[in-house]
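Worked example 3 (structure in, sequence out).
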């Protein structure tokens, strides 16, 4: 009986060392880190409960809609409909409650460049560029080629 209780205690202690919060911080045992904290939240309150999504953007980490960060991501400001977004290498962020959440872009948003790894397609006789399910149309603005979000695939 004592061995069984001891085994359960060891399992519980080990589980605490690899808690979801510690894994999100990229540390073990609750030690702090200077990396951005990731908070997974769904449309309501509480943790996001959904099937895994493929990574988005040109980032090496697995980014998906709904991820939140406490530090401002690198990138350029994109204003659309009176709202400011941040665009960084194929990923769009919105400022939400003093944090930054990965969001789906809105049709009509214009970005200055596209990340490596996009695909060129022709649809209805027009050239479009697709990256991670977002379809962009190249256009000229003040003599410079920019990219307008044209839809989703």
């Amino acid at each position: 009986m004592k061995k069984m209780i001891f085994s359960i205690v060891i399992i519980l202690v080990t589980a605490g060392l690899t808690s979801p919060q510690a894994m999100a911080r990229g540390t073990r045992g609750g030690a702090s880190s200077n990396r951005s904290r990731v908070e997974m939240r769904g449309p309501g309150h509480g943790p996001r409960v959904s099937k895994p999504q493929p990574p988005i953007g040109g980032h090496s980490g697995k980014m998906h809609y709904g991820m939140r960060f406490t530090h401002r991501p690198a990138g350029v400001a994109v204003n659309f409909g009176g709202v400011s977004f941040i665009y960084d290498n194929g990923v769009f962020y919105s400022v939400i409650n003093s944090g930054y959440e990965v969001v789906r872009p809105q049709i009509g948003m214009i970005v200055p460049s596209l990340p490596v790894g996009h695909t060129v397609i022709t649809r209805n006789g027009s050239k479009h560029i697709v990256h991670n399910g977002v379809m962009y149309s190249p256009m000229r603005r003040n003599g410079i080629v920019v990219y307008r979000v044209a839809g989703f695939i």
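Notes: The mean pLDDT is 73. Residues 72 and 100 are 7 Å apart (CA to CA).
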